[in-house]
Amino acid sequence: MIKAIIIDDEVHCLDTLELLLSDFCPQVQVIERCTSAKNGLAAIERGKPDLIFLDIEMPVMNGFELLEQLTEISFFIVFTTSYDQYAIKAIRFSALDYLLKPIDSKELVAAVKKMTAQAHLPSKAQFEMLLDQLQYRNRGFSKIAIPTLEGYELLGVDQILYCEADDNYTHIHVKNKNKITACRTLKEIEEQLLEFYFFVRVHHSYMVNLNEVVKYIRGEGGYVVMNDGSTINVSRNRKELLLKKFKE
């Protein structure tokens, strides 16, 4: 069984999530429900959970401030939020998980499944990256966290040449290095990179950094030549988007 704690200041949200877990994720046992971050900290100390569902927006101490109180994070975290665009971007860039309220049962099942499939807990560096981005909102994002078989790698987005799909994995080709293999689909990596206008999906199997494109060769779809000499095919249905990005 997966021992879980739910921390949310709204009782109806606690009730709903606990019911969804009971119905759709029977492997998850809710050991405590907390209506404040302060009570949540005490529950974490007592219960030694495997998983925490943590509401972001709470009075007195929010979910992120709760994290800052922890000296060690030895469990998985799924953030829950109504909608905070910047916070969601920061969570996504840090390769952490979140659920939008009202929580959808399919998304909940997917989040629990992803957690059980991960070989490593999120790293301290990921949470530091998250909190740093939230503290300096106007500075913009410069790195993303990449989940790998060995753990997580924090990578500057300007180091990425292109991303290549390989079933449930993605090969991220970077400068001065062969590649980093991420334990994420290309769609998931694409979601992390949506903030950066210079990344564009040119094919169902490829996303490129436009800053690293040397030339575009016309054709039915055509292809691009990258700074490292690689050639990437452009699919016919994505050609127009690529040309539009060039003009921008």
Summarize the structure.
With 248 residues, this protein is an alpha/beta fold. It has helices spanning 11-24, 37-47, 63-68, 85-93, 105-117, 124-135, 186-193, 239-247; strands spanning 2-7, 28-34, 51-55, 76-81, 97-100, 143-148, 151-156, 160-166, 169-174, 180-182, 199-203, 206-209, 213-217, 223-226, 231-233.
Give structural notes.
This protein has 248 residues and is of the alpha/beta class. The chain folds into 2 domains: 2-135, Response regulator (Rossmann fold), CATH 3.40.50; 159-247, OB fold (Dihydrolipoamide Acetyltransferase, E2P). Helices cover 33% and strands 31% of the residues. The protein has helices spanning 11-24, 37-47, 63-68, 85-93, 105-117, 124-135, 186-193, 239-247, and strands at 2-7, 28-34, 51-55, 76-81, 97-100, 143-148, 151-156, 160-166, 169-174, 180-182, 199-203, 206-209, 213-217, 223-226, 231-233. It has a 5-stranded parallel sheet, sandwiched between helices.
